Amino acid sequence: MSGTWILACFVCLSLAVSGQVSNDTRAFPVGGTATLPCTGVPYDGATKHWEKNPVIPIKFLVVIQTPLGQSSYGDPFYDETNIEAAGLTGRFRVTEDLMTATITGVRATDDGDYRCASGPSQIIHKFVAYKLDSVGIQPSGPVTGYVGGTFDVTCTASRDSKPTPSFNWTKQGDSSFTATGATLRISSLTMNHAGTYVCTAYHAYARDTASVQLTVSEGPNVTPVPPTDMNYCSGAVAGAAVGCFFGGLLVGGAAVFLFLRSRTAKNGGKKDVGNFADRQYENVPHPNQRVTSQRPGSGSDEYEVPMETIQPPQPSDDYQELRPAVYQSLQKH
């Protein structure tokens, strides 16, 4: 019966509130602790309560009241059903007079309006749970760029950041440099672009920074890849083979040329016709010349032309035929 009376009174109070009203926004980091004051809302001697996202009928989280026949309020009464529905089980507590409410282990789902009311007075806090961490730059650096090249880096924050952050860029020691957006890109690098660049990630309730150092050097923006041992050996062998081949051709050609030139010089500018001392000449009858001979035991004599050796360079009307030295030796015997 008493519970029904309390609920009826809350409905009446919620409809009749027309006194002081105060609204403000309070932001708290996810994982932290939130404290909500009930400043400016004095106890009216009947009831006082906290609720989340006010509705009719009232779904109070906690309430204090003065029992009939007593002059002071009793202990706070927590409605665990409504607390569970609000996702605050085990995390919501208030002081004895309800002047302060505390939420531990803040979650993103704790967002909403929290109302403290008593009689004609109330205060509503717009609760915001925020998160901003894990701010970094990719690549993390230090980064080396080349004159004429491009410097390209991206600033990031955790995906569950709340609300979504924005980004801007500055350069240490250069107040004139500013850029916006998550990605910083500088084209046609010069030596003056070297330095430390700072990214700031921010939203309405928090900000965080990260930095990267850029070094600018003269030279190509592509580093040549050194050859592997296998490629080096293969190239060396192939080059040596080709070099040896052409070198052999040159040396061989030079040797043949010098040999032929030497022989020509020894022969008085004439082609070598051999050594006459090693050659044997003999008279050979002309094919049309008649030769007579005497046949033994025939009783008749026939003319016979004896063969004789003629040494060069004596001229002869006969044909001369070159014989090997072995035949010359046989004729002497």
TrEMBL record:
Signal peptide interval: 1-19
One of the record's GO cellular component terms: plasma membrane
Keywords, alphabetical: Disulfide bond, Glycoprotein, Immunoglobulin domain, Membrane, Receptor, Signal, Transmembrane, Transmembrane helix
Record's keyword annotation contains Hydrolase: no
Residue spans crossing the bilayer: 236-260
GO molecular function, one term: cell adhesion molecule binding
CDD domains: Ig
SUPFAM superfamilies: Immunoglobulin (SSF48726)
Pfam family membership, one: Ig_3
Region of interest: Disordered: 280-333
Membrane protein topology class: Single-pass type I membrane protein
SMART domains documented for this protein: IG (SM00409), IGc2 (SM00408)
Compartment list: Membrane
Residues annotated as domain Ig-like: 148-217
Protein name: Coxsackievirus and adenovirus receptor homolog isoform X1
Organism for this UniProt entry: Branchiostoma belcheri (Amphioxus)
